[in-house]
Design brief:
The chain has one domain: Hotdog Thioesterase (Thiol Ester Dehydrase, Chain A). The longest helix has 20 residues, at about 25-45. The chain has one helix at about 25-45, and strands at about 10, 50-60, 70-80, 85-95, 100-110. It has a five-stranded antiparallel sheet with strand order 1-3-4-5-2, covered by helices on one side. The radius of gyration is 15 Å and the shape is elongated. The protein is an alpha+beta fold. The chain has one helix and five strands, in the order βαββββ.
Amino acid sequence: MTDERNEAVLRVVPRLRDINANGHIFGGWVLSQMDIAGGIVAHRIAHGAVATVAIEGMKFISPILLGDIVSVYATEERRGRTSVAIRIEVIATRGIAQEQVPVTSGVYTFVALDANHKPRPLPV
């Protein structure tokens, strides 16, 4: 995990309804939180609407447990003409000791959209 993360884009506590059959937080819930955080950063960069077009290199390192505080960090990794790749990292803060547990990371690519929902160039 990178040391570049300063402030969480998103911080959330999963609920009982977010657990899977193993008693861990459902992976799809985690992906959704990552998409939300990445979309916030991509929207700022694009100065407008964006859509997720790709997810690269997802690997779950540790499970999220009920009661964990989930922090999602997102930073720009690379930029194209109409798209931006955002590196997203998820950290779970666990227990009284506030242990920081790396959960997953990946790169989400977002494309900037115009009023007709077609790709448009990113601002300079």
